[in-house]
Amino acid sequence: MATVSMTVNGKAVTGVIDPRTLLVQFLRENLRLTGTHVGCDTSQCGACVVHVDGVAVKSCTALAISLEGAEVTTIEGLATDGRLHPMQEAFREHHGLQCGYCTPGMIMAAVDIVNRRGNDLDEKTIREDLDGNICRCTGYHNIVKAIAAGATAMAGGSAADREPPRQAAE
Amino acid sequence: MYAFNYHRPATARQAAGLLSKKEDAKLLAGGHTLLPTMKQRLASPAHLVDLAGCADLKGITRKGRTIVIGAMTTHAEVAASAEVREAIPGLAWLASHIGDPHVRHRGTIGGSVANNDPAADYPAACLALGATIVTNTRKIEADAFFTGLYETALEEGEIITRIVFPLASRAAYAKFRNPASRYALVGVFVAKRGPEVRVAVTGAGEGGVFRWAEGEAALRNRFAPKSLDGLKASADGINSDMHADAEYRAHLIGVMAKEAVARATGK
Fold first, then answer.
1. What is the pTM of this model?
2. Separation in Å, CA of B208 to nearest CA in chain A
3. What confidence score (pLDDT) does residue A157 get?
4. Is the domain of B156 the same as that of B69?
5. Which among A18, A22, A68 is the nearest to B3, CB-wise?
6. Rg of the Cα atoms in chain A
């Protein structure tokens, strides 16, 4: 067993773990943050995407022990003060999901796309950058719409982030 | 995944020390091949030496007429690097098309080159650009480095520290990717430096990455897509699998080479 410390959703956490514990296991089983899903478990599907030090990674393909000192954000860390993050709100508004299994990874990937490419995203960019996320229900159409809208809503800046996005869009 | 002992050295030298002292130790770079392999129990090292803490293995610098990339530099960092985009845009483009965005945030150039997957992208760039693979003990020319399927010239306990890419006057990569795995079904990197032209092919060869001599000869006369008109790569020694047979892959070598030359020459 070994000790690992990192920051998850702004909180310092420490765990005593077997070195082979994957980040997704550490999040789900040790921290009980079950919003991050395991889909394929072979780094294909993206259901397990979280942010590590500000960038999207597949948490099924990272050892928790390797992320000593890292800043991790999961889907649970996006909403503030009980209000959905603009990207979460956009997925709800545009019905960017059916069964919802891929949704946490989709949303974390979507926020990462905005972080890398800015708020004005065309369809081609979104579809190409969703390469690492697989949805087996929706055919992606509404997911792409949701991400474009969420990206625009995120442009409102930190003040707008705290306001209900529908208001911000008006 | 079977249990292992975990080590986190702070420098490449410490990592080399651990590798030589521990029986059955493996290096962990970005982990995007090794961890899935361990999950499938196809690898079960007793010791894992994690290079994540080795700051001396990270970073990109322009040194004279070369770009030097630390082994633990991620694909995303290479793709976004202003130095690489300015000096060898084809290399930045290649890095931006490996796997998917999340994979590019973790996967590293050193890991990719050391693994020498027969369908990986970086080996083609190394071979075409005539890169030098620098390890903790020596320097190895790319021509002597990639020795076979998942085989390299690396000795036991040897660690890639950085890769030195000499600049080319023209260089570009074209890739026909498997849409599911995102690996190259066939990828071709072309580079021209003075009178020298090198064409490296990944994804196609039974023995991994190789140079396409006929393509190089044709492009040496004139470095233009037209020079490859009517030239067919031989299907001998080319992979055949459920995704594409040898004939199809051989055909793609010509098509991808032409596209790469077109990109390199802006045509």
1. 0.94
2. 23
3. 55
4. yes
5. A18
6. 16
From CA A81, how far away is CA A75, in angstroms rounded? 14
User: Domain tally for chain B?
Assistant: 3
Q: What is the mean pLDDT of residues B91-118?
A: 97
Q: Note which residues in 64-123 of chain A have CB less than 8 A from chain B.
A: 65-66, 68, 109, 112-113, 116
Residue with tokens 């294909």: A44
Closest alpha carbon within chain A to B45:
A20
Q: Are residues B154 and B180 in the same domain?
A: no
Domain assignment of residue B28, given as a range: 5-50
- The reply to whether B160 and B197 lie within a common domain is no
| Chain A contact set for B31 (CB, 8 A) | 61-63, 66
C-beta separation of B244 from B199 below 8 A: no
* Cβ-contact B7, B26 below 8 angstroms: no
Say yes or no for a CB contact (<8 Å) between A113 and B101.
yes
pLDDT tens digits along B1-32: 999 999 999 999 999 999 999 999 999 999 99
Residue A158 vs residue B34, higher pLDDT: B34
B256: domain CATH number?
3.30.390.50
Contact A131 B106 (CB under 8 A): no
Q: What is the pLDDT of residue B23?
A: 95
Q: Domains in chain A, start-ordered, CATH in brackets? A: 2-76 (3.10.20.30), 86-169 (1.10.150.120)
Query: What's the confidence (pLDDT) of residue A151?
Result: 98
B207 touching A, CB under 8 A?
Answer: no
Cα separation of A46 and A28, whole Å?
Answer: 16
C-beta atoms of A112 and B52 within 8 A: no
Give the span between the Cα atoms of B44 and A4, in whole angstroms. Answer: 22
Same domain, B134 and B181: no
ipTM of the complex: 0.94
* B233-242 pLDDT per residue, tens: 999 999 999 9
Query: Residue B82 belongs to what H/E stretch?
Result: helix B82-87
Judged by a CB distance cut-off of 8 A, whether residue B50 touches chain A is: yes
Phi, psi for B68 (deg, rounded to 5): -110, 125
Please report, rounded to a whole number, the percentage of residues in chain B having pLDDT higher than 70.
100
Q: What is the mean pLDDT of residues A7-26?
A: 98
